[in-house]
Amino acid sequence: MRVVVPYDGSELAKDALEFAVEHHEDADIALVHVLDFVEAGYDAPPEAALPGYWQDWHEEAEKAAEEMFAEAEDLVDVDFETETIVGRPARAIVEYVDETDADAIVMGSHGREGVSRILLGSVAETVVRRAEVPVTVVR
Predict the structure, then answer these.
(1) H helices within 74-139, ranges in order?
(2) Contacts of 5 by beta carbon, 8 Å cutoff, 6+ apart
(3) Cα–Cα dist 71/131, whole Å
(4) 2-138 is classed in which CATH architecture?
(5) By the 8 A CB rule, do 133 and 105 touch?
(6) What is the number of other CB atoms lying within 10 angstroms of the CB of residue 2?
(7) pLDDT tier, 60 (very low <50, low <70, confident <90, very high otherwise)
(8) Phi, psi at 111, each rounded to 5°
(9) 121 Rama class: left (phi>0) / alpha (psi -120 to 50) / beta
(10) What's the rounded mean pLDDT across residues 49-70?
C-alpha cells in the first residue's frame, strides 16, 4: 500500500503524518510538498518582474521544502519518500496520486486561514472531491 501525505510543515500536516504512520503501519509513505507559483505571485515584490526572480524563488522554495522534510524525519520513526512538485495544490496532489498509483491520501484539514482560505478555497475539500482514492482528513 502507498499513502500520500501532502506536507507543508504546519501542525495539521505533522498530525496527518503521524496519523498515516500510526494507521498504515505497513504502507509506503510519500510526503509531497507543492510549490504554488500562483499563490507566491500574490505576495511577490515589485522585483518579481526582473529576470531570474522566479528561478531564485524556486530554488529557495526547494531548499525550504528539503528542510521541512528533514524536520519531518524527527517526528516519526519510519522511512518515507519525499517529493516537491509545482502546481496548484489540490490539482497537483490529485495528479501526483494518480501518476504514482497511490492507494490513499492522509492530509490535514487546512493550512490556510482567514481571507486566503475564502478566496482560494479549501485544498482538502477539493482533494476529497477529486481524488479517486480514499482520503482521510485529520483535524
Answers:
(1) 89-99, 114-120, 123-130
(2) 13, 16, 17, 20, 29, 30, 31, 32, 80, 105, 106, 107
(3) 28
(4) 3-Layer(aba) Sandwich (3.40)
(5) yes
(6) 16
(7) very high
(8) -115, -25
(9) left
(10) 92
Cell of 8: 507543508
C-alpha grid cell for residue 138? 485529520
Cell numbers standing for residue 102 = 497511490
Quick one: what percent of the chain has pLDDT higher than 70? 91
Q: Which residue has the cell 506536507?
A: 7
97, 2 in Cβ contact below 8 A?
Answer: no
pLDDT digits (tens, 9 = 90+) for 14-37: 999 999 999 999 999 999 999 997
pLDDT band at 40 (very low <50, low <70, confident <90, very high): confident
